[in-house]
Amino acid sequence: MFTIIIILIVTLIVAAIIINAMQQHKEKVEAEKRTEIAKQRSIVDETENVLMAAGQMPISQKVISILQTRVNNALRVMYELNPSQADIKQRIKDADDRLKSISLDEPTNSQDSFVLPDNDKMIIQYIQAIKKLRVLLRSEHTKGKVDTQTFMREDKTLEKLQLRVNVETLVKRGAAAMNTNMLGSARQYFEKAIAALDAQTQPDDYVMQRKQQLQEQLQTIQDNLRNVNAQDRAKKQAEERDELDELFAPKKKW
What we know:
By secondary structure, the protein is mainly α.
């Protein structure tokens, strides 16, 4: 009888250990599933934000397709992990429709037509979006989802757009400084823009033309600064002469 009781106790303990281990494993699997879903949701949100910004820029339909595919894949992983999410199923359908509507043969708008917005906050968002675009494109290439030739071509195009936005931002700030007669600040902005253009190993028409224009503007600023300095020196010399004349002038008799 005592032996049977011992066996029952041991069996209960083993069963409890097994149940506890199974529960812990289940909780671990659920935690990993939640973590993966959160990761995929972050991918979707991040990519959709970049897509929204890209809609205002001369980005190729190929890049749009790559980003939209990235969203689609992340949504499908989320649905596989949790099929009960009806909203995800609908979002997958919407993503499929958007992918089908993309025409890879559609020509990309020329970067020459790209105009910076007047709002500085929007300009910063543009710069951040282009940087993020290049990061996402590289990530998809690393995963083997974008072939090397496509990656190199599209990344080079994005690099040129990033240069253009950076240069035009400096030009805009330099022009604003000139309008307020802050010639020193204007010169610094234009010099930074020229330095960015000089750093290009394979300058295109934009780089060469913009550099020439900026050098001409820089020369104008240098001439203006020389004129201002000359005027300041002349004014100072005149003031010094007035002080000397007053010092050595005959004293008045009262």
